[in-house]
């Protein structure tokens, strides 16, 4: 295969990519909460024992199956890719809740631990393959690092979102759901300005933005379904999740989906 024929197995990073990514992370929050909080009753007076752990096991099984299918696929498939992203973000939601609430690690400890996991995954990926550029993801080795890093980043983002929104009495920053969304949205806007006006590493900016989209989605998702008394809109979690899924499906269909251009193809062009 020549350099010009090498294509990434992940989508090109475009505005459409970021729109779908933010919606997917929001769905991950409402979808994860639907299973653990609404159906398994973790936030009710009569919860199913180990609800967060059960939810993590359910979404984790889907994630593993989809990652295997993604790695075995011969080329980029947008439906498979975004299904895997959604599985990673729902699994990240329930896993972060399990660590923070069931294990009692707390938001600071959980966030620091997950940040260390993200950085370690990126470091090992870079030492092993020489780059963490997502456009280089075209073989099982790169994909394994890619999905491991993404799962850690999705879980970290959930913990950061909850930490920012929860009141000081519960160990949070007391920004509220809308306040947290504004802060993380402003962070993404700052990264966009850096992208457009500076020569800061595009690889660094991608991973920084990828991580920040998750707490943005977490706070928006919580704002949609949390009780009015806690600053939310108290919308139905299942209905919110279904509506988000329909919008995502429509955007995948309407927005052109193409694989990223592998660095070797750019070099030989």
From TrEMBL:
Keywords: Membrane, Transmembrane, Transmembrane helix. The chain crosses the membrane at residues 12-30, 50-68, 80-99, 105-125, 145-163, 175-196, 203-224, 239-256. The keyword Membrane applies. InterPro entries: DUF347. This is Membrane protein. The lineage of its organism: Bacteria, Pseudomonadati, Pseudomonadota, Alphaproteobacteria, Sphingomonadales.
